[in-house]
Amino acid sequence: MTTAQTTATRAPIRGRRSPLASIGLHLTLIVASVIAVFPVLWVLLTSLKPAKYAITTDFFRETTLANYTDLLENTEFLTWFGNSLLIAGLTTLLGVFIASTTGYAVSRFRFPGKRGLMWTLLITQMFPVAVLIVPIYNIMSSLGLLNRSAGLVITYLTIAVPFCAWMMKGFFDTIPREIDESGQVDGLNPFGTFWRLILPLAKPGIAVTAFYSFITAWGEVAYASAFMVGDENLTLAGGLQKFVNQYGAQWGPMSAASVLIAIPAALVFLFAQRHLVTGMSAGAVKG
C-alpha cells in the first residue's frame, strides 16, 4: 500500500463528528431542552397544587383540579377567553388578507408611492409600544372605538400587517412571474390570477402570516390593558391581572389560566408548523 493510499484510508470522513464532539452536542441539546421545558412544566404542576403549596416545590402533594374548577366557575375567564378568541380570529383573518394583497401588489405592480409605502411599512416596525400607545389611544378615542373589540383589532393590525406584508412581498418575489402571465393568457384579471394561481402556491407564507397575526393578538398585554375596561370586555391579558394585587397573587388560578391560554396558541402552531420554516426562509430571500 502506497503512502497516498494510507493517508486516504486514515483521513476522517467529511461531516463525521468525533465521539467527544457528539457527546458535547447532545449534552448541550439536553440542557437547552430542559431550560426550555422547565418553565412550562413548572406552571403546569403549579396549576395542580392547592394554594398552600403554590410557591413550594411539593409538586405532587395533594394534586387537585380545584384551581381549574374555581377559575371556570367563579371568575369571568370564559368571557375573557371568548373575547380574546374573537379578537385574535378577526386579526388573523384580516391580517392575512391585507398582508397578502399588499405583498402581492408591491411584488408585481409598479404604481406611484410604491417606494414610500414600503418605507412606511418598514418604519412603523421601529416604534415600540410605549411610543405608540398614547397616539393610538387618542385616535381610537376620537373614533369612538375605545372599549370595543373593533378598536383592538385595528390596533393589532397596525402591528401585524407591516411585518407580514414585507414577508409576503419577499415570498411572492420567489414565485415566477410566468404564472401571472399564464393567468392573463387564460383571461384572468389581476385579482383572479392572485386568488386562483398565486395564493395556493403561497401557503407557507400564509401560514407564517396567520401564526404571527394570531400570536400578536392572543398574547398582547399593553394595548388590551389600556383600551379595554369592565369584566365583560376584557381579554385574557387584562383578565389575568385580576389575580394580582398589592397584597399578593393567586398563583393557583393564574397558573391554571396560563395553561388554558397556551392551548389555542399550541394548536395554531401545530397546524402551521410544517409551513413555518419554509415560509420564513422563503420570505427572507428577497426584500
Describe what you observe in this structure.
It is globular, with a radius of gyration of 25 Å. It has a two-stranded antiparallel sheet. Strand 1 and strand 2 (248-249) form a beta hairpin. Helix 7 (149-173) runs antiparallel to helix 10, helix 7 runs parallel beside helix 13 and helix 8 crosses helix 9. Residues 283-287 have low confidence and may be disordered. It has 13 helices and two strands. It has helices spanning 3-10, 19-46, 66-74, 77-108, 114-123, 129-142, 149-173, 178-185, 190-201, 203-219, 222-227, 236-240, 251-283; strands at residues 244-245, 248-249.
Mean pLDDT: 84
Alpha-carbon Rg, integer: 25 Å
Structural category: mainly alpha
Order of helices and strands: HHHHHHHHHHHHEEH
Q: Show unreliable segments.
A: 283-287
For the sheet with most strands, the description reads: 2 strands, antiparallel
Helix amount: over 70%
Span between termini = 56 Å
How many β-strand runs?
2
Strand order of the largest sheet: 1-2
Helix tally equals: 13
Strand content: under 5%
Global outline: globular
